[in-house]
Amino acid sequence: MNTADDFDDLSRACFTIPCGPVPTQAASSSSASASLPAGAFPCLSGYETSPLPAQLRRQAHALAAAALDAALERTLDALYAPLLAGLKTWAAPAAETFWLPGAAPLPAAALLGSARHASLPARLSTALLGKSKNNVFVELAASEYDSLHSAQSLLLRRARRDITLRRNESVAQGKRKEEGIDDLLQLGIETLFVSLPALPSHPPAALQDLLTSLASASRGSGTRVCLLFWLPSAPALSQRGSTKASGIGSLGEALPLPAAVRKLCEIQSFTLPTTSETWDSITLQLHMNKHHVPPIWLGPTLWEQIERGFHDVDGRVESVWRALQLAVLDHFSADPFSTLLCKSIPPADAFTPSFYARLRQLLLSAVESHGRVPPRPSSAVDLHPRAHFELLLTSDEHLLATMSEVAQAQRSATRTRNLGLQAIAALDSKLELGQAARPRPGQLWSALLSGSIASLISTLCSALHAAPLARLLSALDELDGLIHREHGPAWLSQEAKEWQAKLGEQKDEAMDVDGEEGRVERVHRQLVREESLSDAKKELVAWLRRSLHTLCVAPHELAFAEIFVYDDAGAIASLLEPAPRAILLAALNDPWAFLESGLSSADDAQDDEDEDRAALQRAQAVADVPDVCRAYVLYRDAGRLLNLADWYNAFAQGIEAQARQRDGAHAEVDEDETQARFAQSVSELAALGFLRRTGRKPEHVSKTVFDLPPSKVKAKAGGAAKSREASVHA
Fold it and tell me: Whole-angstrom Cα distance, residue 27 to residue 142?
C-alpha cells in the first residue's frame, strides 16, 4: 500500500477527524437553529449554543479548501508548465513525410530529476492524456514485477481499469488464461503511456523482455506506445538531448538497458524541477503571494514537520497539500475561534459564556504582550478609546465584532511582510555575498518562522556597512525601487520618515554641482571624509535594521495569532503517519471513546443520535463491550496457541454473565446466537490478521499479533484522543 498517496485502511477505520454530518433537525427555541444541510460540522457544545456557527465554519472550510486547490494549481503551473508543454509535443504523433524501411522506434522520454520523484502529479498525467478517452496512462514500479508474465498482467489490469474510468464502461476480460501484450493493444487504445519510475532499480531481464514485447506488439497494431523513464539527476545527464535508433549517445548509454533494446527507442530527455525549486514554488504561492492570502497560517512546528517530510520522504507537492488540507479541516472543525474567520458572524447568543471568557483572556494577553488595544470596529469608529475598551470587557456583541475584524485584518497583513522578505533578497543580491549564502524563498520563510531571520538581517547589515560606496548606493537604489513598486513607502515608521528626510537634506546640500561631475565630486568628498562616511553608514544601517525587524514579523508572533494560526503538528502527524497496529489495539482494548466519536459522524437525525448515545452510555455502564472486543480480551490474555473450544466457552460465559447482569438472574441466552456471535468475532479478528492456522490440530489457532505495552499504546493513540477531545466537548 502506498502510504504517501492514501491513508492506511485499517487506521482510517478506527481514527478519523470527527467532521461528519450533524443533525438535520435543530431545536426550535432559536431562530438561528434552522435545519442544517448534511455535511455541516458538529456543534462544539462547550462553546456554541446553536448549530449556526458549525454551519458557518463548514462554509469557511469549503472556501479555504478551494483556496488551497487554487494555490496547488498555481504551484503546478509554475513548476511543470514548460515540462508539460514539452511532453505534449513529444507525445504527439509525428507527421509522416517519407517512408523509412524497418520498424519505427518507440518514443521514450527520459525524465531527469531527483530519485524521490516517483511519478508525475495526477493532474499532470491527466493533462498529458488530453481529452481523448482512448489514451491510457499506466505506471509500473520496480517492486511490482519480477518476470514478463507479472509485468504483462499488471499492465493489462491497470489499462482495463483506466479505460473503465475514462470511458465509463467496463472492458471484458479475455477468455484465455494466459493474456499478454497483444491483448493489451487490442483494447482500442490510441496512445499507451507506460511510466517506469526509478528505472535503474527495475529487474533487468524482465524489463528487457517487457520493452521488447511492447516494441514488437505495437508494430501495425494501431496503438502508439510511449515510454517514460525516470532517472536520477547526474552531471553526465544534465544536457538535454535525444538518442535515435541510428545512434546511441551518452544519454542512451546511461540507461540500464542492453544495446539491442536501446536501439528500439528514440529517447528524448526532459529535466524535472529540483526539490529546492519545488519547495520554493510552494512557499511563494502559499505564503509570499500578495494577491492570494492563505486561509490560515501554519505555525513553526507544523511547517518544519511538513518541510522535513517533503525533503526526506517523497518530495511531492500533493503530500504537502494533503497536510495543508488536513490542517484546515482540523482548524475549522475543532477550534471555536475559527468562526471569527467566517465572512458573516453569528449573533452573540450563539456562543456560551465559556467562549467569551476564552476570547477576553486572549484579548488581555494580546494587550499585555503588544501594548495596544485592538482598533475599533467599523460599526463604532466614533467611539472613544476608553469606552471602546470598556465595551470589550462588558459587551459580548462589541467584543465579537472587534475580534472578527481584527483577526481578518491580521490574517491578511501579508503586504508588509512580503516587502521585508523581498528587501532582504534584493539587498543580498546586490551585495553579492556569494551563491551559497544567498537565501531562497523557502529558506527565507523557514528563517522567519524559526526566528533566525534576525541573524540573517544582522549579516546583511554588517555586509552593507562594509560594502564599497558604489555597491552601497546600488543596493539602496534597488531597495528604493522595490518600495515604490509596492505602492510607496507607506510602511515606514515616523522615525524612518524623519531619517529619510534628513538624508534628503544632506544630499541636497552635498550636490552643489549639477550633473555627473557633481556626483563624482560628492562621492570623492565622502570618500575623503572617511570618519563622517562611517557615521552616516552606521545611522543608515541602524535604520535599515530597525525597519527590516519591523517588517519581518512571523504570523504566529502577531496579536491574536491563536485565531488564524494552526500549529498542532501531533494531530497532523497521527493522520499522515498512521500507526494501524497501535490504533487497532487501543480501539479493541477501550472501544468507548472510538464508539462515541463515531456518533458525531452518523448520518442521521438529532433524535437518533441522542438515542444511540444513550444506548452507548447504558452499555458502558454495564460494561457491555462489542463482541469482537470481548473475544479480543480473551485472545490477549491467552498464550501463543488458542483452543477454539476453550475460547468459545469463555466467550459464552461472558455473554451469559452479561445477560444476567442486564436482564436478571433468570435470563436465558440462545446458544445458537452465541455461536454465531463468536464465529463472527473470530472471523473479524482473522480478517484483521490476528489469527492463523497451526497445521497441527484443526481446533487450534496461533496468535500473530501480541499486545503492545500500555505506555506505547497510549502514546501511539494520543493523537486520536486529542483530536476527538477537541471536537467532542459534551
Answer: 58
Beta bridge partners of 192: 136, 225
Reading the block at residue 332, the C-alpha cell is: 475549522
SS3 394: helix
Indicate the residue among 382, 411, 440 that finishes a domain: 411
Q: Are residues 480 and 356 in the same domain?
A: no
**What single-letter amino acid sits at 507?**
K
Asked if the structure places residue 86 within a domain, the reply is no
Q: Please provide the DSSP assignment of 33-85 as one string.
A: -----TTPPPP-TTTBSSSHHHHHHHHHHHHHHHHHHHHHHHHHHHHHHHHHH
Do both 248 and 372 map to the same domain? no
Question: Nearest CA to 633 among 595, 697, 590, 673?
Answer: 590
Give the CA distances from residue 314 to residues 2, 142, 405, 457, in Å, rounded to whole numbers and listed in that order: 11, 16, 40, 32
C-alpha 476/C-alpha 482 separation (Å) is 10
Angle at 168 between CA 2 and CA 148, to 5 degrees: 50
Which residue is it, cell 460599526? Answer: 379
User: Is the dihedral angle over the CA atoms 610, 611, 617, 623 positive or is it negative?
Assistant: negative
Query: 111 with 247, same domain?
Result: yes
What's the chain's average pLDDT?
Answer: 74
CA dihedral for 157, 159, 164, 165, sign (positive or negative): positive
193 and 130 part of one domain: yes
In sequence order, what are the residues at sequence separation of 6 or more whose Cβ sits closer than 8 angstroms to the Cβ of residue 465? 537, 538, 541
Between CA 276 and CA 315 the distance in angstroms is 9
For 150-159, 627-636, 647-656, 694-703, which range has the lowest pLDDT when averaged over its residues? 694-703
CA atoms of 414 and 289, how far apart (whole Å): 8
Same domain assignment for residues 117 and 265: yes
CB 467 within 8 A of CB 551: no
Strand order in the sheet with 224-232: 135-139, 191-196, 224-232, 106-113, 265-271, 242-243
| The total number of structural domains that make up the chain | 4
Q: Are residues 126 and 256 in the same domain?
A: yes
Residue with cell 547589515: 461
Residue that is written with C-alpha cell 465584532 in the block: 401
Q: Which domain holds residue 456?
A: 431-557
Residue, of 23 and 227, whose pLDDT is higher: 227
What would the DSSP string read from start to end of 161-177? HHHHHHHTS--PPPSSS
**Total length of the chain:** 730
Question: What pLDDT does 577 receive?
Answer: 76
Question: pTM, whole model, 2 decimals?
Answer: 0.71
Statement to judge: residues 111 and 226 lie in one domain: yes
Confidence of residue 614 (pLDDT cuts 50, 70, 90): low
Please give the Cα distance from 424 to 438 (Å, whole number): 10
d(CA 280, CA 90): 28
Residues 534, 404 share a domain: no
Would you say residue 721 has pLDDT above 70? no
Highest mean pLDDT among 246-260, 507-521, 544-558: 544-558
